[in-house]
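I hope you will forgive my troubling you with a question about protein structure. Could you please explain, in whatever detail you think fit, how the structure tokens follow from the sequence? Thank you for your consideration; the sequence and its tokens are set out here.
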Amino acid sequence: MGWFKKNISQENGPDLPKLLKQASAIRDKHWGKQITYSRKVFVPLTNMCRDTCSYCTFVKHPDKPEAKILTPDEVLTTARNGEKYGCKEILFSLGEKPELKYKKAKQDLAKLGQSTMIGYLKEMCDLVLKETSLLPHINAGTLSEEEIDELKPVSASMGMMLETITKRLGEKGGPHYACPDKTPIQRLRTLHRAGKKNVPFTTGLLIGIGETLEERIEALEEINSIHKQYGHIQEVIVQNFTRKSDIKMANHPEPSLEDMLLTLSIARIILSPDISLQAPPNLSSRHIKYIQAGINDWGGISPLTIDFINPERAWPDISALAKSCGDIGYELKERLTVYPKFINQPCTYLNEAINERVKSFSMDNKCSSYKMDGVN
């Protein structure tokens, strides 16, 4: 019997106050009175994608003038500006495998001397590592074992949202219809492959796109099961769907604050306590309430670049966020893109050069709030 059937009353529904209390206790015991964030710069390497999710405003069809692949100069300019703003992480986010579907994407890659987006992504990560002090975090979607092998030496961490575990949302009329990379089995395979390859990995749920509470819980249980097998899931995000005027789901209802609090608290209870629980602070004006549901992290916040996935939602001011956390007894602390338990194990989780760079941030006091447990 799963967690849902054992813990959710069929007559009365979930006991939210009880769940919030339990989740907060777990968070406080394992993570203390600190809420962390990563100071990042966001690089949308390409906004072309072979998937056409009904809730996405990031992806642009190749026929549109906005569709593009960033050049090396554009990547490096953004990275260097990020350094000036004190960023430590460079987030590479990109549409999935557009070159397999669109001639323009293939031609644009050829002009850049590459045949695949993954090959170009590796080149850009390598460029950033050679020319800046930043640590690459890669959000490239589903990956094969060979692609993970290609990217691991040039990244500190990787991520891919599981989003949902139900195949139902891929049926005609659903948000994942005709999206080959959003098939749950493909995304689960990527989580397993990242585990086998010892990649510090971020995943999570996108809630409010048509899934049920029971399906969310099943997804959390699956993530936790994979983590128990490999130990590589460093953080899980619970992200709320937000309406946008230019998407197919423009009139779809957004999840309520209570829905977010419920899902977050259940996530904290189900997931291993060593998995960081994260919720984006820019997708709700009442984000500070998430702390009572057991989160310990806000994710990446950029003082320079917008949230290209949710461009209408500005990042909170970091000083204001620190005050809001402090007002309810929690201290805002900066962290790096890779969590402490994966550091100082260069033969396992990190390329040796990246491991040394991670350690240097702490030794040089560039990220003084980062707990470097086990680092000599």
